[in-house]
């Protein structure tokens, strides 16, 4: 259930970001093209229903992410996991000004357009442009890690995967190049018409008041002074940011409290690999990753793929029973009795001898072969 | 070890941007020798168009031609005073540099304000932020492409990293494949980031700045990949240097750190050099830029020094110590090594600050040569050790398999199982499974080790020479083509070095091969006859000397000819002498050579019984020219090898002897067969020669019928050496057995029928018998009695 909510909400958000980026990529043509394409790409999300879905997806994904951090047993993780978590943590502070600005603009009846935003990002507030780029990078990296981790254990992946990777690169790259190209266009326009430049320069403050969504069509009754709006924006930003810091620290502290209990160690002997000692409570996969013992884990420890399964060959550590998800996956991949998923198995204190079932370099394509079994066996030795 | 630090430094210094970054443009323009390396921004497209248009003009072309011709004349005229001019020029450059340094020192406090002013004039804060945005975007583009690459190739990389290579070749190719994949990824990253950047048009300074930042990232990544290739911090199986799991990651981190410092310094000073001339007060800005780049150079040197002092002593202690075998000097060497390295770095830094680039390079290159040579040697030893270990393990595995096979076979066979099994397992217990037990696999590496060492050392020496030449901006090959004295010397030097290299390689190879053969020879214990290896042992040193003389003569002649000495008369003289000596010693040479070939054929050994023509006997000794054969009756034949056409060896593998008995026609043949079998069993049980039998004594039945008897054949097959004794005893025992069982050998009895009724007197009877005997005797063919020992 949790897994399903996480991936569905993530996919919704990812689709939104992807469509937004494709829209930005039109900047390779011109700023007008961006604005012209805007209704087709963003219309789906700017209506009330779309906004509601988006908001719900964001909240669900955000809270599930915090829960996942709370449940982590160790903060020493694989590079991919670290990148994903850090990217997600950075997304919120980078995203706040954009969302709050848009919300405020909507509140005062200002319609956003690329024609006003691009000069703002490139000329009047380049730090905002930098922030957008960073936001895009982190968002996209986080999204890609999540989506591909989910997708590559799906049955259709072996057919579609090779074609989807280029898209994952092409969309943000084209969007960024479109952003650069549109920015250059805006700068050239400014250089070409110094009169307008002088005029717009005097209005720089106006752009700077929020994300720059200033059209001068705001109803007179709702209009407030710029300073006031700026102050509201800044206040809201800081409030959100501090709240966010508090929530994240609270989660980390709660996790620390949860883990404070066990201080026992477990000793794991990998067949054809080293013996390692680690604090109890970590999963076998986490322990292996920390000690450079390679275990295949295509789904990155989400109990989806079954490639991390290990054969238990002895030891006296207490082993928890398989969870529902683990049992399901084990049954699906046809694991022999005595095999468990390394990503889910959290041995208690004691010793444990495990043997890897699959080679560390299993490819996703190997999972869904028509004929079963001949997955590559583990390597002759391990170079850890 | 130490060496690696230095090697890294060299790699860093060889970075193409170095030259332009180190020399401020005005100095480079002042010095004609280095003017090619000016770091000027690329001309715009319009300028190029203009230049092309101007070059299209015929008048301009004509003028350029005449000017070039005039310039050529002046160069020829100035040929004599080049050296003096160069010295003067260098002195002037040094003086100028000193002035600049003083100025830079005095303007040091102003550096921040001056540079900030120049920076602001080129780049508004908005533009600076924007350039950062650009850099991030283009890095993202490159990173995205690289990610895409890894999506397809990451499993391959993991497979390479997690498969333990078993042989040297596999180890090298695994490390190489890993480097290739990572280098490809970096190349894709560079193409993605720089390519995307170049797709847009940029204002000059911004372009330089962004390109510098992108190049910096790429350079650091490339250097880190190189370091990872050599050190393989996480995967000891792919490591190319003998470092353990603790030191390799540390050294790798140091390498990356130094690379970052170096690249950052390089890029900052390059950017400032571009920035300085555009400032309002250009002279002051230049001084400031110079001050900053001197500071950055010092920082880099400090980083290198920190690395040296942090890593060298540890590495020397841990990994490299037993390999250098310096004996008592070791502790001193350990303490002195970091000091020496530091001195090289500091001197290089000082030379660089004072603007003497050529001298700096010379110090660096010479300072690097020794440690790099040591490094290469250690690496080669490391490779060969690993390879030998792997080969020994492989041999061991194969032996174990063979033994297992034997053991199972032996168990399956009913008879001699226990004995065989014991024999088979005994060596397995005796030989430790670990390395350095040289099996046939490991041995083939031992031969190439010195050759590879020698080759690498030579290549390094040549590379050093070329590097020095490049540092002094001379191309050796171009120099060799010029008709000046230096050119001729260079030409001769190239030839001499090439000849020396080849001769040395051939000599090392031959000497290694010969020494290995000699080392395998064990002198026989006193009292035992030496085998054919003994003759090899006398021949090989001779061949080695002949080879040495040949190589020396050929090498010397080639060198003489390249120096310009006419060697034709020498050759002719040597040829005449050679022909004369050749005719004189023709038969001697033939003896020696055919002796070698008989040895190679393994036609005879000391102690064997041979027949040559009509001479027979036991081989007693061999000399270079002849062999000595002792007849069993004591005579000694000396036979030159050249006289040997063919040779019969009676002591090889097996002999068959056939014995014949004449028995009367009424003999029971079955009984004979039984008796022979019985005697055969007795003979085989004999402790003295029983083990010589290959096939026991057995009856061949009746071989032929004669007038008065039949001939029963008996034969046996034995190893050479005891056949005569066996024959003697066989006759003996068979006769006894036949006698005991009532079989009497047929005896020749002649019946003379006398056609007369009356009894003959005794006297006449004897006369008749004598006459008949004489008649028979005269008819019987006297076959030559075989003369056997």
Automatic annotation (TrEMBL), chain A:
GO terms for molecular function: iron-sulfur cluster binding. Residues 264-360 form the 2Fe-2S ferredoxin-type domain. The keyword Membrane applies. Pfam families: Fer2. The keyword Transmembrane helix applies. Keywords: Membrane, Transmembrane, Transmembrane helix. Residues 365-384 are annotated as: Disordered. The chain crosses the membrane at residues 7-29, 49-70, 82-110, 130-151, 163-182, 236-254. Gene3D superfamilies: 3.10.20.30. GO terms for cellular component: membrane. SUPFAM superfamilies: 2Fe-2S ferredoxin-like, Fumarate reductase respiratory complex transmembrane subunits. This is (2Fe-2S)-binding protein. It comes from Aquibium carbonis.
Automatic annotation (TrEMBL), chain B:
It is a multi-pass membrane protein. Residues 545-586 form the Mechanosensitive ion channel transmembrane helices 2/3 domain. The chain crosses the membrane at residues 131-150, 179-203, 209-231, 251-268, 288-311, 332-353, 359-380, 455-472, 492-510, 545-564. Residues 1-21 form the signal peptide. Its main location: membrane. Belongs to the MscS (TC 1.A.23) family. This is Mechanosensitive ion channel family protein.
